[in-house]
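Inputs:
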Amino acid sequence: MNRMPFPAKSSDRPEYSPCFPYAVRTMRDITGEGDRVLGIEDCLTEVLAIPGALDAMLIDQTSGTAVAVGGASRHTGVDDVERSAAGLNEALRATLDGLAVVSPGGTVRIDDMMVTTDGGHHVLRPLRTPFDGPLVVYVRLDRERSNLALARHRLQVLSGRLTST
Amino acid sequence: MPSVHSVHSVHDVRGVRGVLGGLAADRATGSLRLGRAGVLYLTGGRVTYAQSAATPRLEDLLVAGLGIPVGVLRRIRRAAAAELRESDPRTHDPQAGPRTGDPRTGDPRTHDPQAGPRTGDPRTHDPRARDPQAGPRTLGPPVAGGERLIAAGLLTRGELEFCVLSAVLDAAYFLLEAATGRARFRPGERHWLGPQWHVDVTGLLRECERRREQLERTWPSPELDTLPVVPLRRVAAQRVVLNPLQWEVLVGADSTATPAELARRLGRPAYSVLLAVRQLASSGLLQVPASSPVPPSPAPPPSPAPDQAPVTPVVAATPATPAAPAEPAARGPLPRRARGATEIPPPAGSVRTADWLPGANGDPADVNLLIRLRNALEAFT
């Protein structure tokens, strides 16, 4: 990535540490924090920009339909995508139901859910929306090239940028 | 204002679905009005907005979900609608601009195997990129209502898109379910919000079908859909798990509001509320009319109503509270143990020959067995 050796604009310059522009800029790159507010399609692009991301999908939780699809699953058939969206949605819901009973107090809110297979890490994250049931982000990560902690962090930042609430 | 000559009257035996399919194939832009039921807006053959009399409007969702003041919303809508009217391309050729519009919007979708409801082209979010679709004009492009809302800082683009998606899927479900005979297509008519999110017609029809099936699976009777929602005062289950929308429905239910009214009051999509109501009914938390069918007891546990609480198997077995004690009674009272009794009295109706022999009848298998047994015993002696 092409970066200026020093911050070009004064607004970019971190006030606390002018000596380490590299470190600061790279941290910002890694964490994926940005000011721009995202649309749904941009959100998918950002998910696919997570290091090691192979597939991504946004699922409407009310109906389990795939709202947007990107990465390798773009090339699979419509039916397969719909089926996997419905299945993943179902898995998340079943987990919620199961956890609700064992959780103290009986209420539960899932931040994210991960499944590791030989095909990679699968991360599901419900994003709260102010209107309907949440939108669920699904991403499949390469086992060798990805970092789960980083991916979780990126997804968390993303959800803050998709909605303001 | 739209002149009469631009109104196409569509009488179609294929119904609304067929008309929609035809418009999608033509990549039509305009509004499809289905009598009093509502309107669908199309842009380049894809549905960009839908409004149904049975569902809360997008404005309601925005007010309830984001707390946007009603007055502000109305002002923006008026401004956008007025500008749209001024720049109406139908004063020239009704079909020139939008239909030839933008080849990008239609073409990639037909080759794209992933044709589910989603945008084809992120560039359409950019007001400038949408310019060619706006039709012939001498003035600058009108700023669509959606862009105005975002510019005013009332909501983010993601929220707007998701809200439009929710509203379209919600309204389309009720529009397509209510089979109205008459549909009118007005080419070129646009919604004040502008195209914020595109839904493929095929994807939309598929989604409506799936939603219908989901309702069927959850609770097969449409009886509750139009009746007031009345929660039971006491529940037989030991533990109940609710999802947030079910909670809202229960809190909002005042025994007079129907699901549609509740949806409007809560600012939630009507379909989601309907689904929540049916789920609550199948969990045995609502009063159901006496003639209502018993929920499909043997079938449901594996796939059904995803939101169903884990306790539902318990609850579903007892649809109405009084039914629970009544069920064993139907099979007759349990035998009472008598003092000093050493054997269980036979259930009424069964035939027992002798106390110490197993029951036997004329079954050839039994007879054969007895013969072999006798032969074996005789061989002993």
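Strands of chain B lie at 8-11, 30-34, 38-43, 46-52, 182-187. Flag for discussion at group meeting.
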